[in-house]
Design goal:
Blueprint (H helix, E strand, L loop, with lengths): L3 E2 L5 E2 L2 H13 L4 H14 L3 E3 L11 E6 L2 E6 L21 E12 L2 E9 L12 E11 L2 E14 L12 H4 L12 E4 L14 H4 L1 E6 L1
Parallel strand pairs: 3-4
Antiparallel strand pairs: 1-2, 4-5, 6-7, 7-10, 8-9, 8-11
Keywords: Aminopeptidase, Hydrolase, Metal-binding, Metalloprotease, Protease, Zinc
Pfam family, one: Peptidase_M18
Family: Belongs to the peptidase M18 family.
Amino acid sequence: MSAATSGSGALAFTVDEAADGLCAYVDASPSPFHAVETTAAMLEEAGFVRLEETEPWPQEKGRFCTVRGGSLVAWSTEHASGPDSPMRVVGAHTDSPNLRIKPRPDLARAGWQLLGVEVYGGALVNSWLDRDLGLSGRVTVRSGDVLEPRLLRVDEPILRVSQLAIHLDRAINDEGLRLNRQQHLAPHWGSATRPATSRRTSPSSWTSRATTSWAGI
């Protein structure tokens, strides 16, 4: 997203530029970890220096930022004259309502392979029904003897939370949609090897090989 500088020195955006920039940011940020990495990249492009918490920090004035998981802090000391200089603080959260994957998510019921999830935040749960869903978040994988955190993003329609057909929920038109968050929101993503049974899948599944530190739908 490009910006022009007005006569007062402030950045000026057109409505289309602002809308396009917001859409691009949201598309690139499906999880808090992606949002933080996207924001950090934008800050670095604007001249901020990314610092590691474990390394010495510079004493000179400048623009800096640091990242820890799904959190980011950025600050500027360019115009600071001393420890009594006033400062402005702006805060926002990086998370949003979603279906978060449980630590042991592999399930099989009624012939379907399901993914165990937990509702995170104030989600409007009915909005998740009958939609193509993907995955995003952060996982920890084993590489030799080392555990490595990696960002995960699957922009493919691999999951779906299906709504019951009308003949299985006759009262819906009179009583409204009633969803049990533990029983009715587990998305399906394949056929189970043993239909009509509730069980855990084999430890060789990908969800067992990777530790889900934070991933959602």
